[in-house]
Specification:
By secondary structure, this protein is of the alpha/beta class. The chain has one domain (about 5-170, about 210-270): LmbE-like (Rossmann fold, 3-Layer(aba) Sandwich). Helix content is about 35%, strand content about 15%. It is built from eight helices and seven strands. The protein has helices at about 15-20, 25-30, 60-75, 110-125, 140-155, 170-195, 230-240, 255-260; strands at about 5-10, 35-40, 80-90, 130, 160-165, 225, 265-270. The chain has a seven-stranded mixed sheet, with helices on both faces. It is globular.
């Protein structure tokens, strides 16, 4: 067992699987201690009856209860050593009425939430910390807030860990975007054949209403981690979140072999660099190994 510790701050149940679902079991196989902080309970997912978050009668508490069980299962699959739930209410997508719920994460005091995270950081003293960039990767309020509390907590820490933001290089995002567009085209044609005409879904925007681009310029990538030996666990962890990641989702439409080919690398932007690393590393603990 090494004396290395990795800690990721994620917004919702299932984010740990999509963003770091290969990295967690990879590090566990190396004897690294792994810690997950999940900020919200995920109330704004589809509820057990199929109701959407903006539907009348949507039962957020039932969603949270179900997602808690799913998260426990995913944590087990990914061999995560410690899970900390901050317990805030899911804020929903930008502009939703849930943004104004008194208990939502988006409306929480950054200082208060950061103080709770700081307590965990002081207990665990991770060498490597991961969260999202300032736009929360794709503009979700809870992802943005996870970024904010992580940055605030790190300002108060008595040492300087290496901080990474999760990322997808623009070159890879272009491939994924094409796949999404093709899947959407096929679904629209199927719906039209049934007499169903869907409205055009709005694109992702930030809190100012400006469009968001999820891809990161390739030259900004600081770590490219080969997780190809652990993609089955990543797939299974995503599958564990069955209430939200349904069989017709982007990931679940792939076979495990296709998934292994598409998801065999996880990328990160290096934000702090206490070890003076250069270029793109293939070990997220580069600079810390004996």
């Amino acid at each position: 067992m090494s004396d290395l510790t990795f800690l990721a701050v994620h917004a919702h149940p299932d984010d740990e699987a999509s963003g770091t679902g290969g990295l967690y079991p990879l590090l566990a196989s190396q004897g690294v201690r792994t810690v997950l902080v999940t900020c919200t309970n995920g109330e704004c997912g589809d509820d057990p009856s199929g109701a959407k978050p903006l539907d009348d009668g949507h039962d957020g508490e039932a969603v949270a209860a179900l997602r808690a069980v799913e998260l426990d299962r995913a944590v087990e699959i990914l061999n995560i050593d410690r899970l900390i739930r901050l317990g805030y209410r899911d804020s929903g997508m930008m502009g939703w009425p849930q943004n104004k719920h008194p208990n939502c994460f988006w409306g929480a005091s950054v200082d208060e939430a950061a103080a709770r995270l700081l307590e965990v950081l002081r207990e665990e003293r991770p060498q490597v910390v991961m969260t999202y960039n300032e736009i929360g990767f794709y503009g979700h309020p809870d992802h943005i807030q996870a970024h904010r509390i992580t940055m605030r907590a790190l300002e108060q820490l008595d040492y300087h860990p290496t901080l990474y933001f999760n990322a997808i290089p623009e070159s890879r995002m272009a491939i994924m975007r094409a796949r999404w567009e093709e899947q959407d085209r096929i679904k629209r044609e199927e719906d039209l054949a049934k007499g169903i005409e869907r409205e055009e879904e709005p694109g992702l925007v930030d809190e100012n209403g400006d469009p968001i681009e999820m891809g990161t310029p390739d030259e900004l990538i600081g770590a490219a981690i080969d997780v190809s030996d652990f993609t089955d666990q990543k797939y299974d962890a995503l599958s564990a979140h069955a209430s939200q990641i349904t069989p017709d989702s982007f990931w679940m439409q792939m076979s495990k072999e296709d998934f292994r080919q598409a998801m065999g690398t996880e990328w990160f932007v290096r934000v702090t660099n206490p070890n003076q690393l250069e270029g793109v590393v293939t070990d997220i603990f580069a600079g810390y190994r004996d």
